[in-house]
């Protein structure tokens, strides 16, 4: 068996808040293979974003080990790690620097990681913009003049700029409305196929998970309660909490209602 | 129609900018009967939230806002009503739930004090003690069992889901005839959203409150509304009973919205085209009209 791309072993994280401690993650172990999409699902406060932040090195884990391509990730990420693991956050308005033009924001990762020849980088920026369905005219614009959906595309383009292997997506579409969400998600899916990327997809929306993930990890109060293939999760969920999450999905069509009823009947 | 609680006719809104006027709403017709749950669905920027603000009279006084048309509540023309009349409607006859519950409550007051203020609008000079007793009952109705702690807390000390339930209790405190819910679940995650919507559903049914439910997600609306209006760029593009909208979708924009809701029975996402010329087709109004239930 080949080594997993990202391996999380017994990772715990606690935050101390004055007198008491909050256990945000408890002994979580997960593997992500190359080219796979692992979804992390749970309600707010379940620790899913904490895990994403730890993988990105925003703060260290209290306990446990994370390895990437077989080597342990040090707290201070090496330049090569930063290049290979990229992050897309929930709210593009706060994750993209408002005082830089879109072109400057997209050029920055290319400059930092010395990708391509300096004169060609502006062309690369245009290519990236077209890749996410925007035009090169956007490079002169500033974030305040763009909509949430357009900005989230810019955030995706920036994450892809240095050709990463793993993209950590922390609720990339939950601040967008449904029509824009479906456009951004179908773009992500296309890009993943085209560039054979691995995704760690943090979300609370199981209906989204169904359409993009290969494996699903369900988190509850900092613990991993179920790890299952996406087809298995939607046909025979194991944990009672997963079943509750499934029944909370707003459904509109007959076949969806049937599917949920089938799951209920199996209990 | 005598049964109509809220009747909006030929409502238009534009904003006067420095160099140009921006048209926000174009000839909106919308009506809600007593006890009827109506959903208004559209994407961000379509004008759905400004309709709510016009009903509450929050926009008319704004500089540069040009409102035309008529909004009638119980036959009273709101445009002609005095400030006092509108003021007495708010919180008593019409109340509103906003998208982000935590920021829509005053952070310097405890929940108990906020309840006292609201209940005082319904019953003048209500004592603090009586208000708190009433508030506990209201909180119990929204499944908050530890109401003592909640009443003693400030809004920022409670979770989003808890605050949203407090908001629902506050909005329904004076048994209003109309509740306007502006994206009440969007700031919450799926499980909490499902719970709060269910709760709201049961309560409005019990009190026979009419609801104007504003959302961008057709999936959320499906189980809640009797009738649906779909709005696109300030124009109603399709309206009708929930069943006819969902089973007999006519307008291309409604179809796109419908497809955009991720389904648990599919394996890929709907890639909505950016070509919006399709969405400019004439509006379609389903003939059926279900009045109340």
Describe how the helices and strands are arranged.
The complex is a heterodimer of chains A (267) and B (293).
Chain A: E1 6-17, E2 20-32, E3 37-41, H1 48-55, E4 63-68, E5 71-72, H2 79-84, E6 85-88, H3 92-95, H4 102-112, H5 121-131, H6 148-160, E7 166-170, H7 178-195, E8 198-203, H8 206-212, E9 215-220, E10 223-229, H9 230-235, H10 240-247, H11 254-265
Parallel strand pairs in A: 3-8, 3-9, 6-7, 7-8
Antiparallel strand pairs in A: 1-2, 1-4, 4-5, 9-10
Helix pairs in contact in A: 4-5, 6-7
Chain B: E1 4-16, E2 21-33, E3 37-41, H1 48-55, E4 65-73, E5 76-77, H2 83-89, E6 94-97, H3 111-122, H4 128-141, H5 147-151, H6 160-171, E7 178-182, H7 190-207, E8 210-215, H8 218-222, E9 227-232, E10 235-241, H9 242-247, H10 252-260, E11 284-285
Parallel strand pairs in B: 3-8, 3-9, 6-7, 7-8, 10-11
Antiparallel strand pairs in B: 1-2, 1-4, 4-5, 9-10
Describe the structure in brief.
With 267 residues, chain A is of the alpha/beta class.
